[in-house]
Amino acid sequence: MPDPQNRFAVNLGVRIHYLDTGPDADPTLTPIVFVPGALGTAEDYREEMDALAPRRCIAISLRGRGQSDLPAQGYGLVDHIRDIEAVIEASGVEDFCLMGFSMGVPFALGYAILHPTRIVGMILGDYPAEYKQLSAVWLEKTHQEFGSRVPYHLIQALQAESAEIPLWSDLPKIDAPVLVIRGDQEDSLLSPEDADEYVGSLAQAMMLVFPGSGHHLWEPDRNRYFGTIKSFLQGLDAQLQGEDETED
């Protein structure tokens, strides 16, 4: 499959980079849009794009990450949701599945809550439905672990502008099928109790636990991870095709 194209959207003057396989994608398959975790980039999703070809895949680098601009401020929940909005509008993608991983989950949920009719499905990877207040301990630990790869300003701004914002009460606004995935190891960030709350709050929720996986759901079995995403998307394909046949 040819390499995805580098593209940019603009959110209030901030350029947001994304990768898009659109030109070579199969238009009959449900597209998927990837929202990475706290420090992830669009490039992190090249393997997913290869595994899901010829389906259209879009992967976003939120502000401050990867090739996106690094503004002085604007790193709250709403700013990240607007980055996603800018990419969706610029790409022209419609009737898509939105996948958020880790801290990308509240960003993706925030978009879906505001625009429930634009998505046909969601995948939520190992994170509760809340935007969290990041501690000074998180700042120091993250800087020590990732400081050589990401700007300190990004880590500092994410921590300074973070706030405790629960999204649980807004989940019923999402009618589309939602696949929630968590690991069963100690470093999983989605507790069994929060997983149950997803199932109770969403109209069409499916819960999967990956035995042997922690927060990094693709470890130790990448084929299981890719296969689960592909299977869920194929279910969306079948559902949408059935709706089209009913309309005809």
General description of the model:
The chain contains seven helices and ten strands. The chain has 248 residues and is of the alpha/beta class. The protein has one domain: Alpha/Beta hydrolase fold, catalytic domain (Rossmann fold). An eight-stranded mixed beta sheet has the order 1-2-4-3-5-6-9-10, sandwiched between helices. It is globular and about 55 Å long.
Which stretches are poorly predicted, pLDDT < 50 over at least 5 residues? none
Strand order of the largest sheet: 1-2-4-3-5-6-9-10
> Structural class per helix/strand content?
alpha/beta
Average pLDDT, to the nearest integer?
96
Give the SSE order as H and E letters. EEEHEHEHEEHHEEHEH
Computed over alpha carbons, the radius of gyration is: 17 Å
- Give me the CATH superfamily: Alpha/Beta hydrolase fold, catalytic domain
CATH fold-level topology: Rossmann fold
Top-tier CATH class: Alpha Beta
Label the overall shape. globular
The biggest beta sheet is recorded as: 8 strands, mixed
Helix content range of the residues, please? 25-40%
The overall number of domains is 1
CATH architecture: 3-Layer(aba) Sandwich
Distance between the termini: 33 Å
List keywords for this structure.
single chain, 248 residues, Rossmann fold, two-stranded antiparallel ribbon, globular
Ordered list of secondary-structure elements with their pairings:
Blueprint: E1 5-11, E2 14-20, E3 32-35, H1 46-52, E4 57-61, H2 77-91, E5 96-101, H3 104-114, E6 119-125, E7 130-131, H4 136-146, H5 152-160, E8 165-166, E9 177-183, H6 192-201, E10 204-210, H7 222-247
Parallel strand pairs: 3-4, 3-5, 5-6, 6-9, 9-10
Antiparallel strand pairs: 1-2, 2-4, 7-8
Helix pairs in contact: 2-3, 4-5
